[in-house]
Design a protein that fits this description.
With about 240 residues, this protein is α/β, with parallel strands linked by helices. The protein is about 35% helix and about 20% strand.
Length: about 240
């Protein structure tokens, strides 16, 4: 896949189970993994990540698909979708199945936590990757998971609108960790059709340990393209309470 440098960010890479992806890192303080949405690390994703850096976090952005720094367009979305659809690292339609890339992301979080210490690492996934932060929560290294407009598996066939992109075993572990005090923050616009009924599922499965911030509207990208300050403030408060100790 194509790759360019992001100004001000240090390019690295992480390898787990024979799979290597580039990473971009910046900042100091507790660790946060920012998982980009489709079509990739857009200028809007980069801007949100830089807000976290300015707030006192070490931010690592894995580059999973797309071209870093490329703006959102029909072409960039189509190109990223082609990469996603042919890759075996991502589940697109399967029910009750954890995305395979979760193992790589958990390993990245463990490495960051081992380096930086503290209570754990924060993680935020967006849109197609929204549920990835839940899948990472299976590992104790994740102390602050944020699920922003989760949109996988893709809605369109029966049952998918409420699915969390987790295997039954991983869902049981997520519920166990939530019950032990690891709360989950969710962000969405109330009328966003791509989120489907997933917030209902999260409320049912996690109860009061699912903290939802929902704003009126049918927009989609809560902290990037359609960013609202209320969403950003919620993320900052969530990470601050759980990571800044």
């Amino acid at each position: 896949m194509g790759d360019v440098e992001l100004a001000g960010w240090t390019r690295g890479q992480h390898t787990y189970a024979g799979t290597t992806h580039p990473t971009y890192r910046r900042g100091s303080g507790p660790g946060v993994v920012v998982i980009h949405e489709i079509p990739g690390i857009t200028p809007q994703v980069k801007r949100f990540a830089e807000e976290l850096v300015e707030a006192g976090y070490t931010v690592v952005m894995p580059h999973l698909f797309g071209t870093p720094g490329r703006s959102i367009s029909l072409g960039s979305v189509a190109s990223a979708m082609r990469q996603v659809c042919v890759s075996r690292e991502f589940t697109k339609l399967a029910l009750r199945e954890t995305t395979p890339v979760a193992g790589w992301l958990r390993s990245l979080a463990r490495e960051l936590h081992a380096e930086l210490g503290g209570p754990g690492v924060g993680a935020i996934g967006m849109c197609f990757t929204g549920g990835f932060a839940l899948a990472m929560m299976v590992d104790d290294a994740i102390a602050a998971p944020v699920v922003a407009q989760p949109s996988a598996p893709f809605i369109g066939l029966p049952g998918r609108a409420a699915d969390l992109n987790l295997s039954p075993e991983d869902l049981a572990r997520v519920k166990e960790r939530a019950a032990a005090g690891c709360q989950v923050l969710g962000l969405r616009f109330e009328g966003d059709p791509m989120v489907g009924k997933r917030f209902d599922t999260l409320r049912r499965e996690l109860g009061p340990n699912f903290l939802a911030v929902e704003l009126p509207g049918r927009e989609h990208s809560t902290v990037t393209t359609h960013c609202k300050q209320e969403f950003v403030d919620a993320v900052m408060g969530f990470f601050g309470e759980r990571l800044q100790r």
